[in-house]
Amino acid sequence: MVYVVLGTQWGDEGKAKVIDYFSHQFDYVVRFQGGANAGHTVHVGEKKFVFHLIPSGILHEKTQVVIGNGVVLDPVCLLEEMESISREVSFEGRLWISNKAHLVLPYHKWLDAAKEKKAKNPIGTTLRGIGPAYADKVERLGIRLGDLFLSEGDLTSRLEKAYEVKAFLLQKYYGMDVPMTIEEILREILQYREKLAPYVTDTERLLQKAAAERRNILFEGAQGTLLDVDFGTYPFVTSSNTVAPYALVGSGLGLVDVANVVGITKAYCTRVGEGPFPTELKDSTGEFLRKQGGEYGSTTGRPRRCGWFDVVITRYAIGVNGVSEIFLTKLDVLDGLDEIKVAVGYEIERNGQRERLDYPPQSWEELEQCKPIYVTLPGWKGKTAGVKRYFQLPSEAQHYIEFLEMQLGRKISYISVGQDRTDVIER
Ligand code: GDP
Ligand code: IMO
Ligand code: MG
Hints:
Adenylosuccinate Synthetase, Chain A, domain 1, Adenylosuccinate Synthetase, Chain A, domain 3, binds guanosine-5'-diphosphate
C-alpha cells in the first residue's frame, strides 16, 4: 500500500506527528521534496525530536527511511541532524539517500539571504538556501549527491560553473563579499563524501523493488499545499511542488497506485513568512492561538501568524492533491474559546461590484483583498485535550468537526488532540 501524507494549508499542520503515528505500519517513509526548510516535530513521552531532512519515520526501528531525488539536501544540516539523534536511532541499513538529490551548498544560502535583504517585498524564507538550490537544478547548474563521487577534477569543473555566476551576482549586484573560495567549498564538500557514502544509492530502484514486493510505502510531505510553487500563493511560496502527485516524481516510483492521500489539516490556520492569509487574526484571539498552540517556527523560531479555519483554501487543497480523507490536528488548541469562526467563502470587490468567491483567486494581490465570510460556531467548555474517543468530545467539538466535514466533503477520519504520539482519536 502506498500512502501520501501532506499538509493542506501553509505548513506546520502537524505532519510529523501524523507520520510518526502511521509509521509502524509502513516499511518505508519517504521525503520527496523540500529540504531543511521543513521543521517536523515529534513528541514521544518526554522526548522531543525536530527533523529537517530525516523522514519522521526514523523513530520506528523496523521502518526504513528514504530521502528522494526531489529533495534538496544540505549535507551539513543532515550530518548535524544524524549526530543529534545518533544515540536514539541507528542509520545503518535504514537510511537511504538518492544520488540524484541536489545539494544545497554554501552559496545557495548566501544568495537566499542576499535576495531577501535586497527585496522590496521579501518572501520571509527560512534562509536555508532552498530557492537558489532549486533554481540551480532547473538551470542545470546543480551538483547532485552522486557527483561527490566523481573525480576531483570533474567535480571542480562543475563547481566552477555554478560558483562563478553566484560570486559575480553577490559581489556586483548584491554588493556582498563572497565568504568562501571555490577551493574552500570543495574541501568542505569532500568531507561529507565519506560520511554519507554508506547511505547513497539509486533510491528509485530501491522503492520500485519495494513496491513490486508489495511493501508499504508512506510519503511524507513537507511544507503545505498553499506553499506549492504552482498551486500556492505565488510568489509567496517555497520553490518545490508540495502536492501529492509530486511524491512520484520526487522519488522515481513511477505511476503506481496510491491507495490513499491523507490531508493533514490544522483545526485553525497558521502561516510563517510573508504572503496573503485571508483569515489571519491580528488580535487577542490570534495571540491566544499562538500561545495555546505553541505556534513558533520549528526551523526559525519565528512566531507563526494565526487565524481561523479557511474552507476555501482547504477545499482547493483537497482538489489539487486528490485528498481522500482528513487527519484534523490541534483541535485541543481551540479548548476554552467562547466561539469559533470558519471562513466558508470570500468577498471581494471587482470593478465596483461585490462578488462572493468559493475558490481562491489566482493572484496574491486579489487574495489579499478577499474578506472572509464567516460562520460562527459555539466553542466548548470541556476539554478535548487528551480525549481518547470521539463520543467523549464535548458536543460542540463534535459539531465543529462535522461542520468541517460537511463543508469539505471529506471524512475527518482522525483527530489529534495533543502533541504526544498517543493523542489521536480514530473514528
Ligand atoms: P509539521 O511541520 O507539519 O510537521 O508541524 P510542526 O512540527 O512544525 O508543528 C506542529 C506542532 O504542533 C509541533 O510542535 C507538534 O508537536 C504540535 N502538535 C501536533 N499535533 C498536535 C495536537 O493535536 N495538539 C497540540 N497541542 N499540538 C500538536
Ligand atoms: P514544514 O514542512 C511553514 C515558508 C517560509 C516562507 C516560504 C519560502 O515544517 O511545514 P523557503 O525557505 O522554503 O524558500 O521559504 O515558505 N516555509 C514554511 N512554512 N512550514 C514549513 O515547512 C516551511 N518551509 C518553508 O516561511 O514563507
Ligand atoms: Mg513545521
